[in-house]
Amino acid sequence: MNRGLLIVLSGPSGVGKGTVCAQLRQKKTDLIYSVSATTRAPRQGEVEGINYFFKSREQFQDMIARDALLEYAEYVGNYYGTPRDFVERMLDSGKDVILEIEVQGALKVKEKFPEGVFIFLLPPSLDILKQRITGRGTENSDVIDNRMSVAVEEMNLIRYYDYAVVNDEIESACHRIQSIITAEHCRKERFLAGFDAFKATTEKA
Ligand SMILES: Nc1ncnc2c1ncn2[C@@H]1O[C@H](COP(=O)(O)OP(=O)(O)OP(=O)(O)O)[C@@H](O)[C@H]1O
Ligand SMILES: Nc1nc2c(ncn2[C@@H]2O[C@H](COP(=O)(O)O)[C@@H](O)[C@H]2O)c(=O)[nH]1
């Protein structure tokens, strides 16, 4: 069985990664969503195991020590990480998995999975980014300022990604991401078909 695609969706806080992923989920695509672990406190309405696995710092450090995370990063005072086992199992069973993670973590994933598909979600402008993160109403103004400064640093790392998608309008951003995934599947299938054809001729010879 062919391994599934690993899709990494990054971009600054408030750009709309979660909204885009929720929309893709509603469209009932075959994508599997990886649920991250974090030491951040749950926001109102967030559910354990659906939005995050909420951990104490000690529990998170234990996951690091057990090598239970595919990647992790410290972001604006909290740890965030991707549980390794689930992602590996899903990929091995041929399923496509999407990670919604910040940039430091994405670059670590790229070292381990250079064949992954790395998509950077951009806001239409920095002003709109600030409006979105403020409008969400989940962070205080200090945290918003910190996240905005990190956002500028993160955008400087866009060159390490395979695709940039502007989240101007949710439907079109989702459509572009779905097209990228379809194109990556075609590319992988063409590569494997070419390789199989080559193997068949060399076996005959
Ligand atoms: N295309 C869009 N147009 C207008 N508003 C949007 C759009 N995409 C997302 N938003 C709004 O922007 C806010 C931030 O979105 P969201 O929480 O999905 O961002 P995020 O990138 O997942 O943030 P974080 O990284 O902090 O989790 C939300 O209030 C959401 O409704
Ligand atoms: N490196 C990782 N980053 C992650 C992971 N899960 C989420 N995130 C990113 O953290 C920030 C902040 O998230 P928030 O929910 O507190 O707003 C955001 O950019 C997320 O994408 C992860 O497993 N690893």
Structure report:
The longest helix is centred in the last third of the chain and has 35 residues, at 170-204. The chain is globular, with a radius of gyration of 18 Å. It is an alpha/beta fold and 205 residues long. It contains 7 helices and 9 strands. The chain folds into 2 domains: 1-31 and 96-205, P-loop containing nucleotide triphosphate hydrolases (Rossmann fold, 3-Layer(aba) Sandwich), CATH 3.40.50; 35-94, Guanylate Kinase phosphate binding domain (2-Layer Sandwich), CATH 3.30.63. The mean pLDDT is 95. The site of the ligand Nc1nc2c(ncn2[C@@H]2O[C@H](COP(=O)(O)O)[C@@H](O)[C@H]2O)c(=O)[nH]1 has 14 residues, from β5 and β6.
In short:
The chain has 205 residues and is of the alpha/beta class. It has helices at residues 17-26, 57-65, 84-92, 103-112, 126-136, 141-155, 170-204; strands at residues 6-10, 32-33, 36-38, 52-54, 69-75, 78-83, 97-100, 117-122, 163-166. The radius of gyration is 18 Å and the shape is globular.
